[in-house]
Design a protein that fits this description.
68% of the residues lie in helices and 4% in strands. By secondary structure, the protein is mainly alpha-helical. Helix 2 (18-39) runs antiparallel to helix 8 (192-220) and helix 10 crosses helix 11.
Length: 387
Amino acid sequence: MKALVIAATNLTRTIRDRMGLLFVFFLPIVIIVALGLQFGSGGVPRVGLVAPAGQPLVDELVGAIEGGELAVELRRYPSEPALTDAVERGLVQAGIVVPADYETVLSSGAVASVRYVAPPTSFASALRSAIDAAVAGQAAVVRAARFAEAEGAGAFADLLAAARRAAAAVPGVAVVVTSVGEPLISPSLTGFTLGAQSQLVLFVFITSMTAATQLIVSRQLGVSRRMLSTPTGIRTILLGETLGRFGVAMLQGLFIVFATAFAFGVDWGDPIAAGALVVAYALVGTGAAMLVGAVANNAEQAGSFGVFLALALGALGGAMVPLEVFPSFMRQVAHLTPHAWAIDGFRALVVRRGGVGDVLPELGVLLAFAGVLLGLAIWRFRRALAG
């Protein structure tokens, strides 16, 4: 119970720290959203739609977009501000706003404007081409019907139906696209999934290293020695401090997993295997934090060195740039870090749809890292407490 009280105190101290909250909750999600908006969400693009119901021309346009060459998932929104908010938050890659008087305007011979809402990314520009094709296809039919009406061939509604039949009978242009070779990065790893995996690996380690300063502050203020003056043994103190660091790492890891799964639809694969990887990697971060906290002489030294080390290992281990783009030699060097092994494990769960058995090598290496780091940290911290 004493160890749990020490751990809970450390966890509470981190949550109350505004800078700690920035690294634990806010900053990882911001970067994940930025990566998702830049590279897309993978799979079927999501397109928001604001459109009136019960208008045949609107339904025809929506059907042309859904049945076009590029498969999209349409999500309806009640208003343009709601759609714009969804685009800004990355819930959809783009949005379409069809005016409420769309059919009336087209039938009267005037011009109806369909608005396209999207962030300034290359993916959004490519997505617009598919939507432009659907709008242009309907516009061609409407112009043909208007021309026939102007020539006195009949009523607009009848001529529009005739123009549709004629357009359906005209043979289209066949385009064949052939993929050669294997993609550098699996399509299932684009956007939010790729960002969520890499930022979990990066920030769990960064947060663990910054939390190491609390160990030094406790030593400098004499908190640890005062605990020794009570009926509290060194083992209890060490266990409590270790559980405190582990609790911080797990809190952030689980937050990133659940937040990205519910907010952005990120698939983490087999939940048991993913949970095991998060636990093993959190233990690695715990061991590194305990070791830095036991070796460093002051909190400023631990903070600066810890963040620098976390960023350097993150860059080397593939948490900033995907391992898939590394040359062969650098991929081997990257696997000297626990980051690369954790990323390999998460990749196996998503790309190969693996389970616990498929990530046993990664789990074994991560637990080995954790065991060595925790062993060294406990040995050094025990000497520091014993004086």
